[in-house]
Design brief:
single chain; alpha/beta; six-stranded mixed beta sheet; 8 helices; 12 strands; binds zinc ion
């Protein structure tokens, strides 16, 4: 059933092992998945950067570089982050093994790949050569991205807000996937699909998110899942990570 081949697309795990394990369990419960793709930010913010990097390395057929991966594994640029995010990046850089740093440092921020013969663009932020870590927040941003991508579909992360931008000759529209959602790919349109965040959702729902893409059916589903938030928060407290980063997980902001 090659036409039914499904792919899982995850992003922004940010060292949240409980959330990543719960995502894996949710995918296994659905079954029939051919491959995993990770859009970057495996580390930063949360307490298990090495375990998450090892799991994603094992799992994913394609993985991208996120800005927190770059800052933790390669170099931390000034004024990139707010003080809490920067503290977590510095903490993460101290935790990461040399092997995991080398792996993260070898990743690219965007790429064009083929899934079951279907070309798609994957990007952490955008597929803009000069600004790969730009944020696609509005329909204006999404139209710029759509013009840039050669493929009908682009999967992104980075804002931690799941949803579907649909762009056609009349304009662009956004449908959030705060509690999940599904879309059909139609000819003549372009799609910029934010798969949301596994480990630090910011759309008001503390549940993690991932996307399931079935190229043969032209469908993309965004799935939300529960994970033991309190367990991650307890580990963060023990690690001495900043309190605002601990509390935001409970609120999904
Ligand atoms: Zn992120």
């Amino acid at each position: 059933m090659a036409g039914r081949a499904r792919y899982v697309i995850i992003s922004d795990i940010h060292g949240n092992l409980e959330a990543l394990r719960s995502a894996i369990a949710a995918v296994e419960a659905k079954g029939g998945v051919k491959g995993w793709i990770c859009l970057g930010d495996i580390v930063g913010y949360n307490p298990d950067p090495n375990q998450c990097t090892a799991l994603v390395r094992n799992l994913a057929m394609a993985t991208l570089l996120g800005n927190h991966d770059e800052a933790s594994a390669i170099h931390l640029k000034e004024n990139w982050f707010n003080p809490y995010a920067e503290a977590a990046v510095r903490w993460t850089a101290r935790q990461l093994t040399a092997e995991n740093k080398e792996y993260l440092a070898g990743l690219q921020p965007f790429e064009e790949i083929k899934l079951a013969g279907n070309p798609v663009t994957i990007a952490h932020g955008t597929s803009h050569e000069l600004a790969p870590f730009g944020y696609i927040r509005s329909t204006v941003d999404a139209r710029e991205q759509a013009e840039r991508q050669k493929t009908a579909v682009c999967f992104i992360g980075h804002t931690h807000r799941a949803g579907f931008f649909v762009i056609d000759k009349n304009g662009a529209a956004f449908t959030p996937a705060t509690y999940g959602g599904e879309i059909r790919i139609e000819p003549g349109k372009k799609y910029v699909i934010n798969v949301g965040s596994v480990g630090q959702p910011r759309d008001g729902n503390p549940q993690g998110a991932f996307a399931l893409y079935t190229p043969g059916e032209g469908s993309v589903e965004i799935h939300r899942f529960d994970y033991p938030v309190a367990a991650t928060q307890a580990k963060m407290r023990e690690a001495g990570l900043p309190e605002p980063l601990i509390s935001r997980l409970g609120a999904g902001v």
